[in-house]
Amino acid sequence: MNHLERYAVVILLFALAVLPAAAGAQTTSTTFRTASSSHNRFYWDGSSVPTSTLQQQIRGYRQQSGDLQQKISALGSTAAASVSMPVLFGVGIKDISPNFGDPRSGGRTHEGEDIMAVKGTPIVSPTPAVVLHIETGVDEGNAVYTANPGGETFVYMHLDRFGEGVASGVVLGQGSLIGYVGNTGNASSGPAHLHFEIHNSSGVPVDPFPRLTGEFTIQEKITDLATILMQTSDSTALARFLVTNFRGTFIAALAANITLPAPVIDALASIPAVPAPVSAGGGPLPAGDLDIGSSGAAVVALQEYLIQAASGAAATRLAGAGATGNFGMITKAALVEYQVAVGISPPGGYYGPVTRAFVTAHPLGTAQPPAVSSSSTVGGSGVALSRDLYRGVSGEDVRTLQRLLNANGFTVAETGSGSPGNETTYFGPATEAAVIRFQIARGITPSVGYVGPLTRAALAAL
Description:
alpha+beta; Glucose Permease (Domain IIA); Muramoyl-pentapeptide Carboxypeptidase, domain 1; 3 domains; seven-stranded antiparallel sheet; 14 helices; 12 strands; flat
């Protein structure tokens, strides 16, 4: 039975389970929740090396040289009671659930915590550490082993790639780069995530979940990122990736008057904001995880989205039941059907980080930016600023924007293109710089040169 056939069977089972239910009934089943829990799906995840063998390997890693042991001793003898989330962006403590001890292939159990995250997201050390070993294994994929305070060893598996400068013997501060989220090794058939292990001073794996109780502050994240951007060979590409996926974090940083690294500022200015996904009724889609037993407005929004997506028979049944706000088996089946239709793997009917990211990138029912209209004039030009403007766009409304800026002391250019009397239809770096000066003067945050609703309103008042 191939990949798609297995998931077709899953959908069929869901369908059979819900047929006897009344059209409006979305019942909760604790047993079903346990069976379908998202973290039970990564059956091949982790290492197949026996625990006793891994203990020996870790002891060997820690005893490679006297110099290394001195570095390890300097970490101290007290283990960290609270471990901060090692994935730097997009994942918080509320986004994870315990999965240590879950069954895995070959009769083994899961010896770490799976943290679902966007592929390519930086992973940092939650404590001071010393790199013990890096490897690329059949099971672990790209993996990094570190010595941590209290004689513990942390392991980071399935990395997309290693962090720049990470090598055996390197001393890491808290927040130093380890690598980037991926799905290498035996996780290659599933979604990207970090498999994170903690081994005690005897090398025995212990459950990380109870100690994953801290999060880096926004200031700490930005400070750590500034260092990472200096390490990477392509700071522009990394900054654009992060802004595309985690724009809200950087907007929050600006709102808190935190200085952003220059590559991030450039990315914010050059990458237009993606409209938040909305349901068919116009409401925002939920930001948190949803599963069997969830209820409320967030579930209503998800149900409306699935109904509008109309992926197949399960969506039709959900439409018949209606957006009740109760996440039951009908909703579960419709979500599985949608995940299969769009290629989200594995399609377990769990609304978590992977599905959220896809839905965010594929909103339904969103209105397109209104066309340029002459119904209300701005600055006497006869053209209204009725859409968002940003670097790279063209149109007569850009010319209007340049005229407004030039006429009010925020000169686009002193001479040539963009100068007073020579305004153009192209929104380039000079226009962006002028917009930033205008935004700063008017107290509009973030002041990144993106002409959105607040800036358009301020321009209309000139």
